[in-house]
Amino acid sequence: MSISERYRSAAHHLYDQAVVELEAGDLRQASEKFWGAAAQSMKALSERRGWRHRSHRHFHQTLDLINDEDDHEDIVRWFGLAESLHINFYEDRASYDTIRIISADVRKLVDRLDLID
After folding, report:
1. pLDDT tens across 88-98, in order?
2. How far apart are CA 2 and CA 88, in angstroms?
3. What is the distance between the alpha carbons of residues 16 and 114, in angstroms, rounded to a whole number?
4. Is the pLDDT of residue 11 over 90?
5. What are phi and psi of 97, to 5 degrees?
6. Is 33 helix (H, G, I), strand (E, B) or coil?
7. Nearest alpha carbon to residue 4 among 53, 76, 56
C-alpha cells in the first residue's frame, strides 16, 4: 500500500470513527476526528502530487494549487469548515447540530479529494 493510500484509508477510518463519537455525544472527539479525516485526505492528495503536507500552511498551499488548476472553491470552503472543527476540539463551543451539519461537508471534501489525481 502506498503512502498516499495509507493517508486515504486513514481519512475514511477517522471519518467513520467521528460519526460514532458524534452519536455518542463526544463532540470534542468527533470534531477532532472529522478534522483528522480532512487533514489525512489533504495529505493523500499532496503525497500523490509530491507536495509538502506537514503543516496547515502546506494544506492551504495545496488548496491554492488545486484551485488554480480547476475551480475548486467548494473544496476551499469545505476545508475551512473542517478546520473550524479542529478549533472546536480546543474551544468546545460547537453544538451537536453544527458538527453534524459540517460533517456532511467533510464527507464531501474527503470524497472529492479522493477523485483528484
Report:
1. 999 999 999 99
2. 32
3. 16
4. yes
5. -65, -40
6. helix
7. 53
The beta strands (E) that lie in the chain are given as none
Write out the three cell numbers for 53.
Answer: 503536507
Q: CA 51, CA 42: separation in Å to the nearest integer?
A: 10
CA of residue 94 relative to chain centroid, distance: 17
Q: Taking the CA of residue 37 as centre, how many other CA atoms within 13 Å lie in the half-sphere pointing to its CB?
A: 29
Residue 1: helix, strand or coil by DSSP? coil
Phi-psi region of 2 (alpha: psi -120 to 50; beta: other; left: phi over 0): beta
* All three cell numbers of 27: 463532540
Question: What's the confidence (pLDDT) of residue 70?
Answer: 85
CB 109 within 8 A of CB 41: yes
Please tell me the distance from the alpha carbon of residue 116 to that of residue 79, in angstroms, as a whole number.
Answer: 15
Cα 71 from chain centre: 19
Average pLDDT, the chain: 96
Q: What is the pTM of this model?
A: 0.95
